[in-house]
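tool_call predict_complex ligand=2'-monophosphoadenosine-5'-diphosphate
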Amino acid sequence: MSRTYAVIGWPLGHSLSPIIQQAALSSMNLDAKYIALPTPPGEESARFDDLRQGKLDGLNITIPHKQTAFNVVDAHTSEAAVLGAVNTIVRDGPYLRGHNTDLYGFDQALRTFGSFDPTGVQAVVLGAGGSARAIVYALGLANARSIVLANRTSVNAHALVTAMATAMDMSIEVRALDDQQLQEDIAASTLLVNTTSVGMAGGPAPDQSPVPKNWLHDQLLVFDIVYRPVLTPLVSHAQAAGSRTLGGLEMLVLQGAASFRQWTKQEPPVDLMLKVGRRALANDLHNGAN
Ligand code: ATR
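tool_result ok
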């Protein structure tokens, strides 16, 4: 029986997930399709009903529905519980189980494609939204030594720290993005992760870097989870400063691969998924899409 998987979110824009997931399903000759279902706020409960009734077989959930998804499922993993957010739902009959594969996607991208073991390091994380929360938790689980969390709006950074306090036994320092102290924090760190939308095509500040280029250095791995464009201003400054760099596509593919495993119980072709993701992003350049 043919299966249907889907991603819901708003706006979904040029989501890469359908291209990446469909390539994986087709290459394995699975009788299944993966579609994009743009879903404005207020319409997500109809999608969850469709899933429960078997019109859909599995869902990926992106902004702004991850918290609602968490509340809708019958059970969830411990990671999803800590984050209060679900990005993958697996259906077993009418029973829905929620996962959060963002955490795994970040951790595995860092280790596999960044050759970076976060154990014992000091990391700076920029941003305090849902992605930052998953990344801070992933670094906590990996026993990073300390985290400096820098955000434009300090109340949001403090809210993240408070929300994670019970789950993590680690001190997290909070800074403003324009705090001079942040320069010293970055100088003393080996990992800098950007989770803000600064530098993202179509975002609020596509031509800007979240931190000045002279704050970057050659002992740093700069991981920008933005994947559109591939070369964000931050990644380009980091390369000029001699930092190693990692973009967001690897994380997107690995979190998608984790969803795929949950749905199909099979091992997805990660190299192929990366290849089609890279090709789609390269086509953005030709088509002027963002
Ligand atoms: P995600 O789920 O991807 O983390 P989000 O929850 O919308 O997305 O979080 C967006 C992040 O980008 C926030 O940290 C936001 O900062 P604020 O808490 O100050 O809003 C950050 N961000 C968005 N636009 C920004 C800008 N122009 N300058 C600096 N930070 C920005």
